[in-house]
Amino acid sequence: MRFLFRSLKTFVFILAFISFSSPLKAQIPVGKGTISGDFMLNGMFYIPDSLIGADKVDSKVRANSYMYLQYTNGGFTAGMRYEFYLYPLIDFEDIGYKGHGITHYFADYKNDFIQVTAGTFYEQFGSGLTLRTYEDKYLGIDNSLLGARVKVTPYKGITLKGVWGIQRKNFDFEYLKRKDHVRGIDGEISLTELIPQMSEKGFSTSLGASFVSKYEKDEDPTFILPQNVATWGARLNFGWKGLRFEGEYARKINDPNATNEYIYKPGDALFASLTYSMKGFGISTSFIRADNMDFRSQRGTPANLALLNINYIPAINRQYSYQLISNYSYASQPNGQVGAQCQINYQIPKKTKIGGKYGTDITLNYARYHTIDKTMLPIDSITGSQSGTDGYTSNFFKWGKELLYQDLGVEISRKFDKRWKLIVAYNWLIYNMEVLQGHGGMFHGHNVAVDLTCKINSKHALRLEAQHLYSKDDLGSWVYAMIEYSINPHWFISIGDQWNYGNADKSRRIHYYNISAAFAIKTTRIALSYGKTREGILCVGGVCRTVPASYGLGLSVTTSF
């Protein structure tokens, strides 16, 4: 194994030398292959501001940066990524994402029959209930596996996968000293490909199943902990013309760990969605239930860190980019949630009195999450807690009494002519801050957003966004306004401000202003920003992290070649 690791690192260093000695241009030819890659730097000069809670930091200048290089030659691909987070942005340091080194390196070969990967890789089985390794630079998440993966397609429509590896733990490179690893298999059969007549009649159907197991040595002095913890899952995708159903069920055996307070109860999860669409109309419904399904490589990982997650429990509510309600985004609760969502899209026909020349799009959505039903069992006589027992029982078909999140929203979008477009949106939110953020009580809010775009000509455009969040809870009411001017394809300038005018403490009615400008040429983008960021959370797909308050000057550079 040591030889494999050293050989892979040596190979990718050679690739790096070749690329830097070549002129930077798209798809650099190297023999019969090509080298491509990308680079990112996101830096900040921090200015203390006690009023917003932006404390003085040890290093005022901080940055997150990485470079990725990839060599491709026919069916062979190899790559590496070097990350420099030695002085990271403060919100990344808070979650332990600090260090530097080669964090991603691999060699991969594939043809029509087989694909073999050695090194670090990302993989997902089904919707991720049993396995999902991925990277998100904004969240500071990278739970890649270092090991090997084999994917085989023995017959058209049949796919088999096998993986083994050790998960990345931020910048801890002592893989050989680790006492845990992950292995899994997955298979999928596409009946549509096996039976072409189904496709001709408008049907699409696939079946899949997966098995994932993690090993971790038991060194606990109090409990006898299972060293092998397994999950299995089965899934079905079915479509006919405009109708589509997706469903997956997963079950995990007893997995006492820090996030469930070391109970031995098995876990399970069910995800299902049903959609129907036709011209001018679409409806989608989703359901999810998760019970004790937090699954990690190391059982002692704290619940407040998105670290070493093997699986993924998706959030089915609609995702928003609105500034004011982004602080109340839903964080998926793998150890106890049940929820449903429904969204309806309708277009008032074009060239009608109500619909106008280009038609009017209306979106209605509703999402609601609760805790699961629980009946607590007797506590352990030795520990004086639920630890060491099954903890509780739960009725699968019964919703818990405690509300976690509710969102009722409507959005209307209309293009008046070739220049003007207007979007108006309203959301009614109920958000359980105590459970989802660890402080406060229930938050109730009403948010109205207006987004107006004027396309001045083929290159110049002006956009105005305004929002008002009314609430008597948490920090009270907010208003937000932003004006953005773009000169296609190179320039982008914006000025925005969030004002917490409804704060009960009048001395805390702060303006969080931000000025930014960006310049883009070909595949390179350089952006500058100056202003204040409020303390809150950042969420992507139900996975969240805390964002501390900050004030300063930011620089962002991205490029690809």
Task: Provide a concise account of the structure shown.
This protein is mainly β. Helices cover 7% and strands 54% of the residues.
Structural description of this entry:
The chain has about 550 residues and is mostly beta strands. It is built from five helices and 33 strands. The protein has helices at about 1-20, 90-95, 190-195, 195-200, 435, and strands at about 30, 35-45, 60-75, 75-85, 100-110, 115-120, 125, 130, 135, 140, 145-155, 160-165, 180-190, 205-215, 230-240, 245-250, 265-280, 280-290, 335-350, 360-370, 375, 390-395, 400-415, 420-430, 440-455, 460-470, 480-485, 490-500, 510-520, 525-535, 535-540, 545, 550-560. The chain has a 24-stranded antiparallel β-barrel. Strands 7-8 form a two-stranded antiparallel ribbon. A hairpin with a 2-residue loop joins strand 15 and strand 16 (about 245-250). The radius of gyration is 25 Å and the shape is globular. The relative contact order is 0.11.
Please report which band the strand proportion falls in: under 5%, 5-15%, 15-25%, 25-35%, 35-45% or over 45%: over 45%
Shape: globular
Query: Can you tell me the residue ranges where pLDDT is under 50 for at least 5 consecutive residues?
Result: 1-25
Category from helices, strands and their pairing: mainly beta
| Number of extended strands | 33
Mean pLDDT: 92
> Radius of gyration, Cα only, in angstroms?
25 Å
Helical content (DSSP H or I, runs of 4+)? under 10%
Give the N-to-C terminal Cα separation.
33 Å
Query: What's the number of helices?
Result: 5
> How many strands, what sense, and barrel or not for the largest sheet?
24 strands, antiparallel, barrel
